[in-house]
Amino acid sequence: MTHSARILFLVKDLLDELQSEKIELGTGAHLRVQELLSHLPDDISEEDLLLALAPILAHSPQEQALVYEKFKICQQRADEIFGKTPEPPPSPPNPLDEKIRRSKIGFWVSLAALALVLGGLAWIHSQKEDKPVIEKSLTVTAGQTTMICPSVIPELDSFGQKVSGLTIKFADGSSELQRYNPYGGVSEGIPASAEPTVVSNWAVIRVQKDTCLSYTARDSVQGMDSLVLNVSLSNGKSCELRLRIFVSPPVTVKEETVITGPDHPDFQLRPIPFDHTQAFLDLVIKPVDPWQNWFAQSWYWLRWLIFLPFTALLFALWRWLEWRRRKLIAELDRQDKPPYVWNIRIEGADDIVLGDAFHHALQVMRRRSATDTLRLDLPRSIRATAEKGGMPAFQFRAQTQPVDYLLLIDRQSAQNHRAQLFDAVFKALQAQELHIERFFYDSDIRIGFNETHPDGLRLADISQRYGQARLIMVGTGLQLIHPTNARLEPWAEVFKNWPSRALFTPKPTDDWGRGERRLSELFTLFPATLQSLGFWVEELEHGEDARFERWRDRVQDAPAAIYQPEDEYPLPMLLLQLPRELVRWVAACAIYPSLHWDLTLWLGRRLSKSSRLGKSDVEPVVTLDSLLKIFRIRWFVQGQIPQTARAALLEWLEREDPALIPRLRGELAALLAQSPPPKDSSAWADHRMAVVLNQWLSETDKKKKKALEKEIEKLLPQTEADFTVIKYLNRPPSPLHFQVPERWKKFVYRGGFPALGFSAGFWSTMSAALLWLLGSWGIFSWYPAPPEDGCKGEKVEYTFKPNTRFDNFQKVVKSDTLPFCLDSPEDSLLWLERLALDTLENHHVSNFDSLAARAMRLPAAADSLAHVRANFSATLYNIGVDFSRRGIKDSACVFFYLARDWGLTQSHYAAENDWCMGKKTVAPKLRKLVIPALPDSVRIRHILFRGNISKSETRAKNIMEQIKSGKYSFAQLAINFSEDTASAKKG
């Protein structure tokens, strides 16, 4: 690729700056920089260039900081020469970020809409009356003043607080009194005065001493008034007091008689003895809560108002859960720091049984070699001088020194087990204090590297440093042969700097051919075994008499040709050429996705331990000879077993020993978990996936298995699952799992694998869908029940008549009709009484007779029937009085006779009978009520006082005593008493 002049300048200037700072940059570093530039894109940014160069040029944190500092200086110089680098164009927006942003907007809009709906519903609900309400009925007498204080309203004691204030409540935004109606609500009334005293058509009302209400009913009114009061309590709270006030006319009785003529009667109206107005109004069906009624009537459109925000909220919640899950995956994807590959390191992995061939080779390699320097041999000189009769005869011997060895290993890849095996032999020789050094080379033999020289040394430099050593080269050596003319490369002459050199090739001797003949021109060629090494060292001791061609007679462990196993069906060839224990070892190596030297040896030791358990005659598996045998398989040179071969090997091992693989996987997971890579590194995901998968396959606890399945789901977006584990992952966890098309699996299952169970996205989608279906079904299938009024009996409807006593009441309720509930015969009696009396107000006698007859046929109590008869009689009598005053004698007499027929005592109508018959009579004169003294033998049975019927004898006597004492100036009083000693009734 062609880079800009600025980029090339920055690289060159940076290298010069680092060299000026005495940082050693070898040939290997320059070659790697050059290789890096050839692979970098032309439009690479300077920041990315620095990130790519830093790992090559710096080997410590201090050097890395220096590289960054020098790079900034180089940028400043480049700006002076080339000008400043233009700002890069803004990167296009990430589609995932844009999708997340839209999801957030949708979520907040849905949330705002739901908040508005909930706020509206809360506001509607707040319109309901939540202040405590007390209802009270009182009876007052026209023309009299009644004090309404807390003492006469015992319901106020339930608050446990003292009443601190009492105010008349007006309608909102007006100066009109609020009046209570039987429906349970409050309606507007007549205008009120701004003065403390409120004057209405019914009464004069004023608040006295802040806690009492003075109510003075007008003389001319009769019926029911209503009033709403606000009661303030001592704790700062308040309640609403709703009063129904029944106004009754004063009672008059006969006192004196005057003589009147038949043409000019002076009959006086008689009061209704048993005023049932309050009892009748108590039968009113109170309407349901307006809120409930509105809710039931508005449910058709209100359910849509609930359904739409419910759907939006559920969708927003589902999108938020998906966003959180994707955000977690995106955070995991940012693990891009080194190391990028994690090599498994296990302590004690190099513990290999080396065998006799190693010890023989070690022994011969320890032999010292003679040098050109001579040293006086004193014992031999003395003997020689003695033999010559004292003539001095000095004897010398060559001085010896330890032999140096140089080992070059063809590694090809980091996971080449054969190269690592010879590296293990090198470490074992070095541990025995043998003078030996080792270099690796990858493909290009001209560059060697080791721990001391990680960036590599040129072959010429190595020959200068270790030219006196014996060269042991392990590899095929094909890099030395030109690919076109099959001759040795010209640069291969550098090997001639080593007088003693040998090439140990892993290629089977049966496969040696033209290439090996060409290599034998430069090297002594041997098979790569320890016996070959020992033989070569021994022959070197013979000098010119060495006969290396005899190795075929001496070397017994030369590798024979092996038929490589097929990737699809590897078992036949392996079982044919290797012992069964070694095949088990190869199959066990297929557990992990890639081959690692330490892991291979660890698995061999685990198998050896399980094979030797209880058996003393079983040899260990991990020996040098067994390793040389299995490392002839190309998989261990490449560092990877093909996926299909791994699957076949594991299936065979599972059949061979079913309990072995789960045990090995569990031990392997525990082993890998002990040395994990950094969590922010690129290698962490692959390593963690291997740990979790092996734990999952070996775990039997269901709870732990579920936790591992969730972790596998999180790791799958970053890395792939092991091929051999996929068959386990594709197994459904239970027969109840339904079949899913392949293209749906990644949405339905975790990572697309049924064994991991349903994915979090699937569960959230199904939960949201189920919740939506249930919610929708509930919203559209449920209908609010019509509000119940509590009536269990017959429901009737009363229609207001014009110009009746209920005119004011009709204005209060703002309706022409009123519903009533008749639960008992007594309730029906009150209802028929009211209808009958209404017909009398219109003088419909025939209708009255029908209604009255129905009333008398009811199975009500005898005293109730008697009260109704008395009311009928009084009403008929008053109509007759009205006709008599207007001079309509015939009609008046008709009603007088009817009143006499319905009355309980015929003597009360004597004057009326005389008048109708043309006789003179005594007319009664009215005065205020005077209660005569009653004999002790009289027992009071019932008393009607201020509209309330009392059947308590004690209560009746108390009322009588209060009236006699003058506490009440006048009152409506009806007494039904009897004498205990006589059967006659007096009224």
Commentary on this structure:
The protein is of the alpha+beta class. The protein has seven domains: 78 residues; 189 residues, no CATH class; 122 residues, Immunoglobulins (Immunoglobulin-like); 136 residues, no CATH class; 164 residues, Rossmann fold (3-Layer(aba) Sandwich); 92 residues; 59 residues, no CATH class. The chain has 34 helices and 27 strands. The strands form nine sheets. It has a five-stranded parallel β-sheet with strand order 15-14-18-19-20, covered by helices on one side. The relative contact order is 0.08.
Question: What is the structure about, briefly put?
Answer:
It is built from 34 helices and 27 strands. The longest helix has 35 residues.
Radius of gyration equals 59 Å
Number of domains: 7
Beta content comes to 15-25%
Oligomer: single chain
What is the strand tally?
A: 27
Helix content: 40-55%
Distance between the termini: 130 Å
Look at the helices and sheets and give the structural class: alpha+beta
Total number of helices: 34
Q: Spans with pLDDT under 50 lasting ≥5 residues?
A: 170-195, 253-262, 922-942, 944-951, 966-987
